Amino acid sequence: MYQENVPTGFPKGFLWGGATAANQIEGAWNVDGKGLTTAEVVQKATDRKNSLAMNQVTQATIKQAMADKTADLYPKRRGIDFYHRYQSDIKLFAEMGFKAFRLSIAWARIFPNGDDAQPNEAGLKFYDKVFAECRKYGIEPVVTLSHYEMPLALTVKQNGWASRKTIAAFTRYTEVLFKRYRGVVKYWMTFNEINAGTWGFTGTGAVDDQLTTNEKLQLRYQALHHQFVASAIAVQQCHKIDPQAKIGCMLARMQTYPNTPNPVDVRAAQVQDQLNLFFTDVQVRGEYPEYMNRYFKDHQIKLKMAADDQAVIKAGTVDYLSFSYYMSTVTAATEQKAKTSGNLGFGGKNPYLKASDWGWQIDPVGLRITLNEFWDRYRIPLFVVENGLGAVDQVTADGKIHDSYRIDYLRQHILQMKEAIKDGVDLMGYTMWGPIDLISAGTSEMSKRYGFIYVDQDDAGKGTLRRIRKDSFYWYQKVIATNGEDLAD
Length: 489
Description:
- By secondary structure, this protein is an alpha/beta fold.
- 38% of the residues lie in helices and 15% in strands.
- The chain contains 15 helices and 16 strands.
- The strands form 5 sheets. It has an 8-stranded parallel beta barrel, surrounded by 5 helices.
- The active site is at residue 386.
């Protein structure tokens, strides 16, 4: 729509804040009736740059984990003790001026086995208290229904999302939450980084280590189909139970560039882009895109669908598109020698970009590109719900943490969001990852710190758990107070 006035800054009511996940912060893994989750049987990685370690789960390692009643090998069991410290942590978020706090609900706190006859009231009461604390400070909770975890009992019983039965278990869980938190939670999202399901266990809760490559793809895409149906049902539930609430999808954006202008490289990058955008095409447009038909045929994938599945997906499109953005990669038609690690995978190295301590390429302009591509393709509100820099922070002798590198990273990305808004993009908020140091999703280490708030805990779980404000804490406080206008140190 033509208009002469171009936006000059972030809109009024922009949702500034931070994002976390239950399995990375809560701890209290066996408290108040909570069941064991899939996240709590993933061992900490031995290689800190192996972000795919979280998918290296087998039937044997699950049995080993179930027999182990400690958190020694499973740091997500201890988190950072948010379960007992949520009041003081949320108070710190409020001190920064948060407008929104993205968190997830642990399904196994509500239904310990996933399909219990009745929900666990103790689990619901915990989130009652968390949301009340947010409301006390005027912070909007942004709630992920499934963030890289599900009750382990469903994996043992029916191999997680590989089973269609899991749809009913999930949508019973979501119905309980929508009814309980009607008028309390305004913003929901269904599955965190749903495309992670193509990498295996963490996204699907399904063990597939004994399968061939094509068999794995078959299982994973079938599991993802079940998640698409469950997500669509949850959207319809939410709209019916609480018409004022908004519910979105969530994608790990894999921004990729062709290695050269050679058309074969451009086409290779286009294919990678399609494989990434497939998920949002389904959840936003409400249908399977035609380009996937060839992919499924080429990889001998045959999806089993109920007669009304596609109609359900069409009727359950989301209200907004949320996504994580950390980096970009390069794609070529032939295998590249120079590789880089990153979020959910690996790609070609871009000689024009610097990288983090973990090899993740830093590309602020790529965020503007992503925002424009999403807006052009989907025309629904966008929400950056993860973006941040994992780094090794050093505490000085006087107890300070000077993290100018984090400030610089976030500043550059916020500037590019502002440019995207000037481009005409409808951007509703920004919840950086993660506002307080937490357990890494991929490697389960503590040394990879993202927060504005330092947590005194090492990779072995030793420390006082004391919270310390970093320099970036005060910087972000100023950013929020000026609605993104003052980005100086």
